[in-house]
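Troubleshooting log. The previous structure file for this entry was overwritten by mistake, so regenerating from the original sequence record. Sequence copied from the archived sheet and checked twice against the printout by T.R.
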Amino acid sequence: MYRLSLTMLCLFLVIFSCKKQSDTTDTVQEKTSHELTEKEVSKIDYDDFLLDEKTIEYTEYWDQYNELQTVLDNFKKADISFLIENNEVVTTTLKDLKQNIPEPLNTSSIIARINAFETKFLKLESLANLSSTSKEELIASIKDVLVAFSNFNLQMNKKVEFDHLNIEKP
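Regenerated output below.
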C-alpha cells in the first residue's frame, strides 16, 4: 500500500511538472511573434498625403504635430516603442495637439480629423500594449493610423488652399 501511494505521488508530480514547462514555451512563442519588421510595415498600401508648402508655414511651429510626425515616421520603420507602456505621454501629446491648433487651421473639419486620428492612435496604443495581439492586427492598426494622419494632412491642405483662393463675386 505504501509503495502504491509513493508510485502514484511520483507519477502525479511528473505529470504536472511537465505541464508547467510547456506553458512557458507557449508564452515565449507568443512574445516573439509580436515583433514587426520594417519590410512588413513598408508593404502597407495607402495614399500618403504630405503637407503643401503653404500649410508647412502654419505647422512649422506646431510642436505636437511635428512630434507626431516623427512618431509616425518611426512607425513606418516598425518602431512602435513610443506606444509601449507610455500611456500618459500619448494622452498628453494628443490633448496638446487639439489645444494648440494654429489659428488659421482651427476649424471644425480639422478638429474632426484630429479626433479620427486620435481614435485610431489610441486603438493602436492599446493593441501594442496587449500581449495577445497578432502581427496582422498590429499592421492593420498601423495602417489605420497612417491613413487617418494622411487624411488629416489632406484636410489641412484643403483648408489652406481654400483660404488662398481669390474668388471674385459678381
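The helical segments are 2-32, 38-42, 53-59, 63-76, 87-99, 108-128, 135-164. Archived copy saved in two places this time.
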